[in-house]
Amino acid sequence: MTELTKPDLRPDNARFSSGPCAKRPGWTPQSLNDAPLGRSHRAKIGKSKLKEAIDLTREVLNVPDDYRIGIVPASDTGAVEMAMWSMLGARGVDMVAWESFGAGWVTDVVKQLKLENARTITAPYGELPDLNSLNFDNDVVFTWNGTTSGVRVPNGDFIPDDRQGLTICDATSAAFAQELEFSKLDVVTFSWQKVLGGEGGHGVIILSPRAVERLESYTPSWPLPKIFRMTKGGKLIEGIFTGATINTPSMLCVEDYLDALNWAKSLGGLNALVARANANAQVIHDFCDQTDWLDNLAKDPATRSNTSVCLTITDADVAALDEDAQAAFAKGMVSLLDNEGVAFDIGAYRDAPSGLRIWAGATVETSDLEALMPWLDWAFNKQKAALA
Fold it and tell me: How far apart are alpha carbons 114 and 220 in whole angstroms?
């Protein structure tokens, strides 16, 4: 194959977006035929669907029996905001950020809630901050997997069992692809449009008994919007965690989530999902090892994501360009692949260093990633030729 010859093989599914993510293999609109459309979510059928979604979430994610699971508005963002605005302020808080979404939570706490007892612990894209420097007498807010940097915590060993504060974990690109250690986590949030490829707009919040105790014993000094309120009269609103959602959910989206959960269960549950994501990510990591122009943005292999794999172009000629030209080079590659119909939505996140971001979560087929890799070489060489 000459450098500008197009590969013969194309991915069957070119959807590698990091959210909303690819639908499960074999998905069709007929998968949603059982959705109770035109019915109230308060009706028996609506409540039963919501309760089934909560129960299957617990089963697939191995959530402890004494943790509560609720479906909430506004995707993962809504779930994280709900937790922070409802629980923070009772004690100091360590805000941990190494990519754009974590940085967004820092902004909320420092500039919106304006908590004076907040510490900010950060690291640049591609790295983790010093997790041993965290003060767990404070509450700690962090992402498990940095969606826009491809850097994740390798495990929960840095969190002590005897912590005094709460751990609030944004796990949206980790849930259903990585092992979340719930004994270390007091609040876990995600949206099902990530790893399971469900339709967007809804978030999930999971609360430990310690988080419930905080909600029932602490009232923040600021007003709470209705969609953030999880207590009434100082007691947890239990209905939220049995299917009585705060606002009106889309039963079509809930049906899609149920379809994805049942697919995950049919594969063998969480272990099977993790194995699929690991195999997918390994295809990309192996390709990086074999090329001299591309590398993983995550510097430490132990911290590399198996879902949102972020890549940087290391070719010397490209690296010698200014930042705008480097970004244009990467965007040119993305456009070439999009126009060929072999890879959609694989550009780096707008706030991240220029490069590529390829979703490798469980709904992606390994064969599609294997087919994509030669196309990355083709697009790079075509862009490189244009520099000459």
Answer: 13
Determine the Cα–Cα distance for residues 102 and 149; give it in Å rounded to an integer.
Answer: 11
- In order of their start, the domains of the chain are 35-266 (3.40.640.10), 269-387 (3.90.1150.10)
- The span from the CA of 37 to the CA of 33, in Å, is 9
Helix axes 209-217, 75-87, angle to 10 degrees: 60
d(CA 60, CA 203): 17
**113-155 pLDDT tens trace:** 999 999 999 999 999 999 999 999 999 999 999 999 999 999 9
Contact 376, 294 (CB under 8 A): yes
- pLDDT interval class at 4 (50, 70, 90): confident
**Cα–Cα dist 377/281, whole Å:** 17
Cβ distance 245 to 71 under 8 Å?
yes
341: phi then psi, degrees, rounded to nearest 5: 75, 25
Whether the Cβ atoms of residue 208 and residue 185 lie closer than 8 Å to each other: yes
In this structure, the strands spanning 139-143 and 167-170 are parallel
Using CA atoms of 38, 197, 30, 371 in order, give the dihedral in degrees to the nearest 10. 160
> For 287-322, how does the pLDDT look when each residue is reduced to its tens digit (9 = 90+)?
999 999 999 999 999 999 999 999 999 999 999 999
Long-range CB contacts (< 8 A, 24+ apart) of 379-383? 379/333, 379/336, 379/337, 380/293, 380/294, 380/313, 380/315, 380/333, 381/3, 381/4, 382/3, 382/4, 382/336, 383/329, 383/332, 383/333, 383/336
**C-alpha–C-alpha distance, residues 255 and 250, integer Å:** 9
Q: Is the pLDDT of residue 3 over 80?
A: no
Contact (CB, 8 A) for 248 and 37: no
Q: Is the dihedral of CA 95, 362, 22, 193 positive or negative?
A: negative
pLDDT of 1 above 80: no
Mean pLDDT calculated for residue range 46-54:
98
Assess contact for 317 and 387: CB atoms under 8 A. yes
Cis status of the peptide bond prior to 154, with omega within 30 of 0: no
Q: Is the pTM of this model over 0.90?
A: yes
